Predict the structure.
Amino acid sequence: MKLFHRVLANTVVANTATGFLWFGWTFWVYLETRSVFINAVMGGSYMALLSVTSMLFGVLVDRFRKKLVMVASSVLTAAGYGLAGVMFLALPTPVITDLRAPWFWIAGGLILGGAVVENMRNIALSTTVTLLVPDGERDRANGLVGAAQGFAFLATSVLAGLAIGLLGIHWTLGLAVLATTGALAHLVLWVRIPEEGHTPDPETATKLIDLTGSVRAVRAVPGLMALILFSCFNNFIGGVMMALLDPYGLTMFSVEWWGIVMGISSVGFIIGGIVVSRRGLGANPLRTLLLVNVGVAVIGVLFVLREWPWLFVAGMVAYMCLIPAAEAAEQTIIQRVVPLERQGRVFGFATSVETAATPISSIAIGPIAEFWLIPWVDSPAGERAWSWLLGTGDARGIALVFILSAVVLLVVVLLAFRTRAYAGLSRFYADSAPQGVTVDGSTGS
């Protein structure tokens, strides 16, 4: 566990640096352009690249040693951020913010690429849990990962807002490069991941993308494909949140305060992760996952009913409290039912499928919200139609999108409880418990 804690701490620092720059970049771009559409395109592009690259990353995780994969990820991220920093030093800011010129898109592409490559490290971390943590304790280890990621999100959101508001994009880039290279040095010199006795799957030796092997590994487990497809739909709803959360928040708060609000909400992520790390997920993580999504849907309806800052912040905290349990549930299921030598490809395949819907919804909802829903709800006719439910304010059109998405999610989750896939995967998970692991997932004596 000491080795796992060291790997986790290093990954948190690297993720914090990546999230810090990505948050700062999106804040800065929105403040410079005031375009919901551009914000949606950036978020959708990030998720689209995650979807396209994750299967490749999964093959690399299965083919090479986990530490080598993490080192390569950090090197590529640091290189992308460094090149973007050179651009900002060499060119005046008005030149970079000119959307008709290539420089904005080149700088954004370098920052986006560095953030996407970081996902290779996260896939490797999920398989490292299997490698270093015994079955029966992995749900708690995954909860600890969630708590650590919540801490990283807290630091990321607060620092990004303050950095953009007080220091500007140049200092934000420089700090991200410094933190990324520091995490790389620590990983190379002081982190050890023993992998003796675990040989790579020979199927990965000649392939960059092993779609056939990934699908075969997923279909070998009853109900696992349905779980991945459900998470895909869940991310479709998440794309709406990704596209519109910053514009909604920045309507009520300055960029400095919006960063602080995001940091406050991430305390919920830490709390949720700690609860999972202490109590686990119960005998059936799949049931826990669906119940969590019921809670997410209810929160999605309530937290924007009025444009009240306290209601919005309370809803964000409650939402963040639930997310670690959902993420830990899926990871714990895969870590038990899929052999270690194929887990990289399964985690990569799951990420590809689950994130595929997000860029579609994120990119589509931007123009719909900016050019249709927001103007209509703000019009006298729209206000008469919806003020009884949404009240009045500057972002009621965005609030309506949140509520409709949450209602759709709630209906789908309630139907999922009645499916054969839910029953089949629940049984397979319970039957796959190794000897010495009790029904509640703990290790016996």
